[in-house]
Design brief:
Elements: E1 9-14, H1 19-28, E2 34-39, H2 49-61, H3 65-74, H4 81-90, H5 100-104, H6 107-119, E3 124-125, E4 127-130, E5 133-134, H7 141-153, H8 168-183, E6 199-200
Parallel strand pairs: 1-2
Antiparallel strand pairs: 1-4, 3-6, 4-5
Helix pairs in contact: 2-3, 7-8
């Protein structure tokens, strides 16, 4: 998880070679959200996505998942083994553990994420869920900010797991705000993504 405790949970199914995922990652960094990333490598069109996902998990085993995750998206034009090793060295990690056979032990984790995505109806990347609800609108920053802001405005109390829990009335208002954000373009973000901008499985 990345982001403040108690913030709304944004789960992203993504692929490190998907340019649309890189754009969403950059936008999410600017938002007050709790982010979880799930691997969904589309091997048919992205031959390095699986290796990059394993490298991210290998970095995570050394305490640097998010640092590696961000580097992989920022430099997604270079995801060969030499580049993955260089990124690990840049982060002060054991580079021998992020490529080749040592990294393959994380393949099961990547496969589990992929299978969970398929079970949840994920058909391409990026696919975004906000507090368990599939995001079907634009993945530009304004719409996401509005949805997350609407969610935050509707929160009160605290759930048993430490996350703030909206009451039924406020949950309905948040759902309405979420649906409105999904369908409306925002004036402060004139350059809108096409909702179909994603890499299909």
């Amino acid at each position: 998880m990345r982001g403040p405790d108690g913030a709304r949970l944004v789960v992203v199914y993504g692929d490190y070679e998907c340019p649309f995922c890189a754009a969403v990652e950059a936008r999410l960094r600017t938002l007050d959200a709790r982010v979880a990333f799930r691997h969904f490598p589309i091997r048919s069109s992205h031959p390095r996505a699986q290796a990059a996902a394993c490298a991210a998990e290998a970095a995570g085993a050394q305490g640097a998942f998010w640092s590696m995750h961000e580097l992989l998206f920022d430099r997604q034009d270079r995801l060969d083994d030499a580049a993955l090793r260089a990124y690990a060295e840049e982060l002060g990690l054991d580079a021998d553990r992020v490529v080749g056979e040592p990294a393959q032990v994380f393949g099961d984790k990547v496969e589990a994420d992929f299978a969970a995505g398929l079970a949840a109806g994920v058909g391409g990347t990026p696919t975004v869920f906000i507090d368990g609800q599939l995001w079907t609108g634009r993945v530009e920053a304004g719409a996401l900010r509005r949805a997350i802001g609407s969610a935050a405005a509707g929160m009160n109390g605290s759930a048993a797991d430490g996350r703030r829990d909206p009451g039924p009335g406020r949950q309905r208002r948040w759902s309405l705000g979420l649906r409105r954000a999904q369908r409306e373009a925002l004036p402060e973000d004139p350059e809108q993504d096409d909702p179909g901008d994603r890499c299909n499985y």
